[in-house]
Write a structure and sequence with these properties.
403 residues, alpha/beta, six-stranded mixed sheet, 45% helix, elongated
């Protein structure tokens, strides 16, 4: 069982305490909604659009609400949706709007959004901010439905689906217009009686917050395990990015490490429109692989030389002790660097396949981090795996046999 699932089970009880299980009757209608956020933190709302239909798809109500997020607006968000502070200056805050209007609407039997996990996560975080209960929500996602239905479209973004299905999307990223488009997509590709609606559980509850007293290596161990599961299928989703961000938000020690602030910035930028597209997924896959598999991320296309090169060893090796590995390197003209960190003249840091007891996260210890810090300063040091080293040694031996 993966760490994602095991952590989810561990904190399921905590989630249950925050999900409203009231006995009030549900509304026998479909609620379609979309939210827009003022900044890339995606934990508050500046605009929400809703459309309500009956079970036959007849429109009952549609409305756009401006929300004072009590948070700053970022330039990129304003460029996307056009909402600014002046638009929401006199608007109600989310807690007021929820108690006056939204809570009743979200008691609908069926809640639908496009890329629903994103919109629902913003709603649930907004509720958590005001210490309001997260209602019990049965939801469906039109992005997932379109994918399962194999709708003929260049992609499953809302704009792409509307173009392919002949649906008019007047102003993309206006919350009401997006909610209307979501409604039309749903009734164009789905049968309300057969669509499976699932209970919503906030993804950010699945990941155990890092203790403030945890050592950096322990925080990194958990992070690397989460990242390994995220990148296993060689793609990164918005829900997975949000989960990693949630974990990192409680990792003060990790955030002091070089490169982590830049990684968070890239993830936040990717989430700004709520969707991680193919290009963003590919870029994030590279960045996350650099953390979980630092050597593999660098080895592609690399030609490793040994003669006259300075090597530093870290971790435990399949081929034997560090002394034995050092002898193999020196036997082919290499030089061994000892000490706690590589120097500016070090050519390679070699990671043992068995990792290191000192770094339970496996491959990402202080020597590797020091090498990455030096790379950022333009120093030509490389991080390689034990396998890559011995491939290079094997190639040298094969060439020697030819002569």
């Amino acid at each position: 069982m993966g760490l994602f699932n095991s952590l989810f089970e561990k904190f399921d009880a905590a989630l249950s305490d925050q999900v409203c299980r009231g006995d009030e009757p549900k509304r026998q209608n479909f609620l379609f909604f979309d939210v827009e956020t003022p900044n890339r933190d995606n934990d508050c709302i500046c605009q929400i659009g809703i459309c309500e239909t009956d079970k036959r798809g007849n429109l009952i109500r549609s409305e756009r609400f401006f929300v004072n997020p009590e948070a700053p607006f970022h330039e990129k968000n304003m460029e996307i949706h056009g909402v600014c502070f002046n638009d929401v200056r006199d608007a109600p805050t989310f807690d007021v709007l929820w108690s006056q209007t939204l809570a009743e609407l979200f008691r609908s039997d069926y809640v639908v959004a496009h890329n629903a996990n994103f919109d629902l996560s913003v709603v649930s975080k907004s509720l958590a901010h005001y210490d309001l209960e997260v209602p019990e929500i049965q939801y469906a996602c039109t992005m997932s439905l379109a994918s399962r239905a194999r709708v003929s479209a260049p992609g499953y973004g809302l704009e792409q689906l509307c173009d392919s299905l002949g649906i008019n999307l007047a102003r993309h990223h206006d919350a009401l217009e997006d909610a209307k488009a979501c409604m039309h997509v749903f009734w164009a590709i789905a049968d309300g009686d057969t669509v499976r609606f699932a209970p919503y559980r906030p993804s950010w509850y699945r990941y155990k917050p890092a203790s403030k007293t945890h050592e950096k290596a322990e925080q990194l161990e958990t992070l690397v395990t989460l990242i390994e599961e995220v990148i296993a299928d060689e793609k990164v989703t918005a829900d997975e990015v949000q989960a990693i961000l949630t974990y990192l938000s409680s990792c003060d020690q990790l955030m002091k490490r070089s490169g982590f602030t830049e990684l968070v910035d890239k993830m936040l930028d990717a989430l700004i429109d709520g969707i991680v597209d193919e290009d963003e997924s590919r870029d994030l896959l590279i960045e996350l692989s650099r953390i979980a598999r630092p050597a593999e991320a660098q080895e592609a296309g690399m030609e490793i030389s040994i003669d006259g090169k300075l090597f530093m060893l870290t971790g435990s090796f399949d081929h034997g002790s560090k002394k034995a590995v050092a002898a193999d390197i020196e036997g082919h003209g290499g030089i061994i660097k000892t000490g706690s960190k590589p120097s500016k003249t070090t050519d390679y840091v070699v990671i043992g396949n068995q990792g290191s007891d000192a770094y339970r996260s496996g491959n990402y210890g202080t020597k590797v981090q020091a090498a990455f810090d030096m790379q950022e300063k333009g120093i030509p040091i490389q991080v390689i795996t034990e396998d890559a080293l011995y491939d290079a040694i094997g190639n040298l031996q094969a060439r020697q046999h030819l002569f």
